[in-house]
Amino acid sequence: MNRIVVAAAAALSIYQFALSAPEARADAIADFYKSKPIVLSVGSAVGSGFTIYARLIARHMPRYIPGTPTIVIENLPGASGLRHMDHLVTIAPKDGSTIGLLNPSVAAAPLLTPELAKHRSDKLAWIGSANSEVSTCMFWPHVNVKDIEDLKKRELVIGGSGAAGSSGIGAEALRSIFGFKWKIISGYQGSADIMIAGARKEIDGACILLMSALRAQYWEQFQRGEFKIMLQMPPGNHPDLPGVVNTIELAQNEEQRLALEFIYGYWAFGRPFAVPAGVPADRLQVLRAALKATVEDPQFLADSKKIGVSVDYMGPAELEQRVKAIESTPASIVAKVRALIPAQQSP
């Protein structure tokens, strides 16, 4: 009889522990996030479209994290996102107190510029993405480029932020694939600097504006004709750019099409958030749930619409699958794309 009582008491104790364990874990997470702010690290300059997303997320996401921590923005531009990637992997704490908003081109960089890209995606744990993007090429009125045929004939100076990222590699590839007579100048800190350079007539064009940045930051200037969008890239045509040629339409063979999809395909997950690999699983899960809840929040969506920012949530599993697909690009295609880029520069 005593053994029955002891067994019953032990079972009750286990049951009570099982009930209290999730609550205890939640309290521990809340205590952790109450004690310190979260750093939202951005791999681009202060005036970039990435920073607009970061500020919007930082304003709303704390409501969905136990402990309601403050989120502070840290900008780490350089080498088209590779400096930021290195920081997340080697320096940022692996305790869930730092989140990275990455340039998605870092998914392709280890294949395209292995001499510059030190880390692959297995060094990260994905949280999710806030939207999909379409990349564009723009030109300023002082060059008076009228159409695609004109674009092929004219000698133009194109500004970029770095040889390792989409603005550098993409412009080099477009020049090589389609025979554009472009002189490409890299080294600008980000889109804001490039826009200023174009307005000053220091450069003639750039392949740097994503549709979210165009809508949120430069839509009025675009409507006034202060610059012209002449090309858009894969993964698709944007409804706000009717009549603008997609480079896929210019491809003359399968090799060119695959090269373009490899170079620009990562914009399908345009604003990817991640933490360094090794963050405790319970905190990672909290951050993933918080991002999803944030981008579905009515107040967040209202604020997004107000400033012209598009939202198209992608969960961590799909994001990881898309990144792995890029990393699994056949070596023959990668080699052909690398051959299109005449100079592999240092950041």
List keywords for this structure.
D-Maltodextrin-Binding Protein, domain 2; 46% helix; 11 strands; 347 residues; alpha/beta; single chain; five-stranded mixed sheet; globular
Structure commentary:
The protein is α/β, with parallel strands linked by helices and 347 residues long. The chain has 2 domains: 11-133 and 269-335, Bordetella uptake gene, domain 1 (D-Maltodextrin-Binding Protein, domain 2); 136-266, Periplasmic binding protein-like II (D-Maltodextrin-Binding Protein, domain 2). The chain has 15 helices and 11 strands. It has helices spanning 2-34, 49-60, 82-90, 109-112, 148-153, 166-178, 191-199, 211-217, 219-223, 247-250, 254-264, 281-295, 298-307, 316-327, 331-339; strands spanning 38-42, 71-75, 98-101, 124-129, 136-139, 155-159, 181-185, 205-206, 228-232, 245-246, 272-276. It has a 6-stranded mixed β-sheet with strand order 7-6-8-5-9-10. A 5-stranded mixed β-sheet has the order 2-1-3-11-4, sandwiched between helices. α6 (166-178) runs antiparallel to α11 (254-264) and α11 (254-264) packs across α15. The longest helix has 33 residues, at 2-34. The protein is globular. The relative contact order is 0.17. Residues 6-20 have low confidence and may be disordered.
The unreliable regions are 6-20
Question: What gyration radius follows from the Cα positions, in whole Å?
Answer: 23 Å
Assign a percent range to the helix content.
40-55%
Q: Any idea of the CATH class of the largest domain? A: Alpha Beta
CATH fold title of the largest domain: D-Maltodextrin-Binding Protein, domain 2
Q: N-to-C SSE series?
A: HEHEHEHEEHEHEHEHHEEHHEHHHH
Distance between the termini: 77 Å
